[in-house]
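so im writing up the methods section and need the Tyrosine-protein kinase record in one place, dumping it here so i stop losing it
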Amino acid sequence: MAPFLRKRLAFLSFWDKIWQRVSRRTAPPGPGAPTPPPQAQRPSPPQSPESLSAPRAQLFHALYDFTARREEELSVSRGDRLYALKEEGDYIFARRLSGPPSTGLVPINYVAKATRETRSDRPWYFCEINRTQAQQLLLSPANAPGAFLIRPSESSLGDYSLSVRAQAEVCHYRISTAPGGSLYLQEGRLFPSLEALLTYYKAHWKLIQNPLLQPCVPQRPPALDEWERPRSEFVLGKKLGEGCFGQVWEGLWQGSVPVAVKIIKSVNMKMADLSKEIEALKTLRHERLIRLYAVCSHGEPVYIVTELMRKGNLQFYLASPEGQALSLPLLLSFACQVAEGMGYLEEQRVVHRDLAARNVLVGDDLTCKVADFGLARLLKDDIYSPSSGFKIPVKWTAPEAANYRIFTQKSDVWSFGILLYEVFTYGQGPYEGMSNQETLQQISRGYRLPCPAACPVEVYTLMLRCWKDSPEERPTFAMLWEKLGTMHRCLHLSLL
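--- predicted struct ---
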């Protein structure tokens, strides 16, 4: 009787309370019965990747399509099942379980942890959203009237909600679960699955007065910027310096890569413009410019992470005992390298605004690289204004920039002349003994810095050309690089 009733009335749930299932047990052998020989163990059949015993938290499914942009990334389609081997900041390193097997990095905001719900690969099923989010999604420009989705019910555990866009509003319908596990939207119409229910109401949409035309298009999250990294990947070590922009620290990236980390001071910086400036920095690549590695711009403080130049800035290095022993050819080499880097910025129509020996970095092999290009424009007006007590670097700044805030590539050329003076005085500051106000007054009267003792006459002639009153009369960086390169080669040949 029990098997017959169970089979015919399977939708009733109380049979197990009436007839307990009896597990089959083999009676133990009686006294003196021979012990049966052990059966040979068959090897277990190989398991598919999906049946591997992995922690549930490590199983994911793709919420959106993602196309790999780099070799180490993994392209996935919405609904793909993934096994996360490890999490790496904003990514998971995963093996794809559905489709062609492959591994790679997938942005973590493109996936969700898999649950026992088997419908997550259906384009109309959204397991991660609530009623308000469903409305916002269906009313977005990507979706037209007739777009629909099914989501778990918020108010009734185990039930579902059907949300449908009807012109400028969204209608929600409760999908309830019957005692036997069937589903229904209207009393008397039972369906074995959500698929069957949708198939019926697509054909008989007038029963709910809203057609079900196409599954809701998911809102794709913003693509991750490959430059953007979490702060947790960087460990700060020794403080290297501090300036108008913030502090500079020596650090390690992911425990192994030496880097320099500039921590931006939000109190002095136009933070609203910083992201735009960082985008510009990413496009500037030249061997004479400091190399950008990464940024941490979400929240504060903002990190700008660059390559580490171990000998520090040029002004500090020239003033050190090692710098004081440098020969004239090496000084000319420094000048040439800076002119080359500034020539590239000139081609890109980028104005530095704060060119000085302190913003040129020196590597172990005595290579020089220009740093902090473009950041000066982000300083707040009250910091970078003559009216606030000349807090701008007046002694490096062209008169038209200091007096009238006219910054151009030609004002950078003036600053380069001051940098040449720093190089050939081994790090000595310009206009020593003068205040900023006195410096501007003397320059307006025609005063120019004298020729340093170690400076060739030809180089001093270039300095004076950089300090012409009229910006149009000053040379270009391309010409300065050519002239200094010629001097360097001639001096090198004369010493052979």
